[in-house]
Amino acid sequence: MLIPESDFKLISEKMGREPNTVEQGCFLNLWSEHCSYRSSGLLLKTLPTTGEDVIIGPGDDAAIVKLTDTLYLAIGMESHNHPSYVDPYNGAATGIGGIVRDIVSMGARPIALMDALYFGSPEIKKNQYLLEHVVRGIAGYGNCIGVPVVGGEVMFHNDYSGNPLVNVVCVGLLSKQHLITATAQHAGNSIILIGASTGRDGLGGASFASKDLSSESESERSSVQIGDPYTEKLLIEATLEAVHNGVVESCRDLGAAGLAGATSEMAAKGNLGMAIDLDQMPLREESMTPFEIMISESQERMVLEVKPENVGKVLLIADKYDLNASVIAKLTTTPNYTVHYNGEIVADIPIHLLSGGAPYTEQASIAPLKTSDISPPEIETGNLKGAILSVVSSPNIASKQWIYSQYDHEVQIQTVIKPGADSGLIRITPGVAIALSSGCNPLHTFHDPYTGTYGAVVENAMNLATIGAEPLCIVDCLNFGNPETKETYYQFKQAVIGLGDASKKLHTPVVGGNVSFYNESKEHNTTILPTPSLGMIGKLTNVEIEHLPHSTIQHKGETIILIGESKPELRGSEYYHILNTKAGSVPTVPENIEQILSSIRGLVQTGSVTTAHDISNGGLAAALCELITPTHGAEITLTTDKLTDTELLFSETYGRMIITTPEQTLDQLQNIPHTIIGTTTRKQELHIITNTEEITLQYKEIRQAAETLTKIMKE
């Protein structure tokens, strides 16, 4: 028996007989947590997924959101966590390949990628190896297919040792008339498999993703797909040419669960059946069994629904791009999923039982025990400068240039704002651009999954606001441990509620995403921090690029304004993480966050803001250090009897931003908290006066501290 006993009994009851080996292989993957969302589906249904700009929400290969009257965006987010631990290069590379094909299958050309990466301490050699090869995999695949990586996030914590997270966002652009979906259209139409041949790589990848990692997991390399970006590039062009020629009725990427997943889901969505002939499959390995052919997750493959009279046209397009293509199936009126091999029927399953028939199970949940109150530490007198530099040098705060310098972020020549800023920016037309932001703060969600996830939505919206962009939508990758553990399911449930409440508050729908459970390592005896990683897409119209704020100081003599209210909220902050303390209060979101975001966007759009930088990880201290350049510095005064120096500098309260402007007063800020905290200078230094100290940090000192990750990875 390949599948759990309870599933075996249910399937046998529904089918009126016991499933054979091939059928069990299909159910093993289609009913896996990774494909069926059986522990999360009920909760995900509570998320707001609709809006005036949402054309297609969750349930297809990618979401579709209206950008203009004639242009749509296709947006998706996926994880490739377990494969990236077992084989970091190919695991990360095929994660890129898979999410790109999801976008292409909607008729869209991929135009941007973002990566959200979470690893164990980079001081550990194994983690260095994983990071190095994951980044190489992303760069090697993304650069070859010509899709720019324009943003992302990298976080480090020892709980990711043994189970790193590799989450990827992809955005595509399409004309309204070229939109296609994964919903099968008509019985009698042919199904063409196009792309690479099928091999034994990636066998059971979906079921592999639905179990814990252990010290033996590295032996499961056959579960990791092997990517070929050059074939992917040909497949992108061939698929889009077929779509633009009007000969594709529906389309689906062969991703999780391989052929079994793509074809059964396509037919089920159209309330049709499918008859598959495995003898027509292009294979690259001899003696593959029907079981292996059905669940192989070999990469660079798509299935296209084509009218019989258009089959020849699609085969000619495939030949033009030197791709394999074969008619492997037909859609039927009978809602059964039938697989033929060597003249025999090797599988015959009710299609809605296989696709969509897995029972939902809402797991039991219980709040983890709270740690007892701990007295918060305070900076030792005279050590303020050292505390700031220790935060700046933390791998979580330090420059990530070593990573994003390996990506080609200028290919397609539409990238306006490159990696390293608060958000990426892609020009679409002379008057329209999209802004992109991704990530979350797992240190916050660990201490309070509801508020931390709510804050992650706000944080991404603040990133977009630095350039005046209005949020269009959210995609998510919800990474958690074993959902059968009550504490883990509690974290997941609270995170989903927080995501839903925040998206409602900001009127930004959650249009798609992914849930990744079982992110635990028996080898290291660790469970990852709750990591609800997000991608957010925003829109700018009537864009004047030269008037957009920079993320660093540009001119001397400008006023530096702190927008938002700082609170004594250091629990889960980077500073307290360095000190290894769980003291204090978790960062919160201000009640008037809508007003704060609206005011900032309106202010930025006036063109009166020269510099805008969100305050997030590392607090105000890190943000101020990141403003300083080799030519410009700042004079800052932070004195108040309401907060200590530690709270002023390192609190990570949400909804705050630093701006510089040549103006002294700004009408748009009248109704939101803001404080003038200093002036920009021509000095290469950051000079700070606080309640108790007066310190100066030279640009070279800050820069040297921020090179931590580069130094580690180049050793």
From TrEMBL:
Residues that hold Mg(2+) 1 according to the record: E78, N514
Residues annotated as domain Phosphoribosylformylglycinamidine synthase linker: 6-37
Cited SUPFAM superfamilies: PurM C-terminal domain-like, PurM N-terminal domain-like
Active site positions, chain numbering: H34, H80 (proton acceptor)
Keywords tagged on the record: ATP-binding, Cytoplasm, Ligase, Magnesium, Metal-binding, Nucleotide-binding, Purine biosynthesis
PurM-like C-terminal domain: residues covered: 187-341, 557-686
Superkingdom of origin: Archaea
Domain PurM-like N-terminal span(s) in chain numbering: 59-173, 420-539
Keyword hit for Ligase: yes
Subcellular location: Cytoplasm
Residues annotated for substrate binding in this entry: S79, H80, N81, H82, R101, Q225, E297, S298, Q299, S516
S-adenosyl-L-methionine recorded as keyword: no
Residues engaged in binding ATP: Y37, D476, G513
EC assignment: 6.3.5.3
Name of encoding gene: purL
Entry binding sites for Mg(2+) 2: D102, D253
Enzyme class, UniProt record, top EC level: ligase
Name this protein carries in UniProt: Phosphoribosylformylglycinamidine synthase subunit PurL
GO cellular component entries: cytoplasm
Pathway: Purine metabolism; IMP biosynthesis via de novo pathway; 5-amino-1-(5-phospho-D-ribosyl)imidazole from N(2)-formyl-N(1)-(5-phospho-D-ribosyl)glycinamide: step 1/2
Subunit structure and binding partners: Monomer. Part of the FGAM synthase complex composed of 1 PurL, 1 PurQ and 2 PurS subunits.
Single GO molecular function: phosphoribosylformylglycinamidine synthase activity
